Amino acid sequence: MNNIWLKVDKMNLKEGLNLLIRDDLLKTIIDGSTVQTKVSFMEQIEKALQFPTTCAGKFSRFEDWIRDLSWLPESKGVCIWITDYEKFLKEDEQSKSIIEEIFKDEVLPFWEAEVMKTVKGGKPRAFYVITS
Q1: Nearest alpha-carbon partner for 72 in 41, 6, 28, 21
Q2: Does the global pTM surpass 0.85?
Q3: For residues 3 and 5, what is the distance between their CA atoms, to the nearest angstrom?
Q4: N or C, fewer C-beta in 10 Å, the chain?
């Protein structure tokens, strides 16, 4: 399993669309042009992935919940598609950078393999973040 951050363009649009039609993924599409605060982003993810509690706008809480997901069926992976990514958090580039770092450096590797080393009985989960 290769969990990825995929920047969709004309050349690989089909790859992104193929992820959206998979039945084994919980999918959410976020309109990046309407998300201008990290809290707004977190709230959308909290709702889509049914976090047990709010992250209260804290990256540490967000990281904890997004690397837990124990309340979701083990058989389901996750696909988050952020459209209008160039407009996403346009006025808060620092938070945008932190969110990218969290997914690329923490979440994707965790669900690909680290979960087996750090969680007793932990199983990998397909996880994709798509930007367009």
Answers
A1: 28
A2: yes
A3: 7
A4: N
Please give the domain boundaries of the chain with CATH numbers for all domains: 4-131 (3.30.370.10)
Burial class, 125, CB count within 10 angstroms (exposed 0-12 / middle 13-18 / buried 19+): buried
**Which of 108, 132, 123, 127 shows the shortest CA–CA distance to 49?**
127
Question: Which residues 6+ apart lie within 8 Å of 67 measured at CB?
Answer: 106, 107, 110, 111, 115
Residue whose pair of structure tokens reads 């988050």 in the numeric block:
80
| Distance, first Cα to last Cα, the chain | 22
The predicted-structure confidence for 1-55, as pLDDT tens digits, reads as follows: 699 999 999 888 888 888 889 999 999 999 999 999 999 999 999 999 999 999 9
**Do the Cβ atoms of 106 and 67 come closer than 8 Å?**
yes
Cβ(130)–Cβ(4) below 8 Å? no
DSSP string, 76-118: -EEEEEEESTTTTTTT-HHHHHHHHHIIIIIIHHIIIIIHHHH
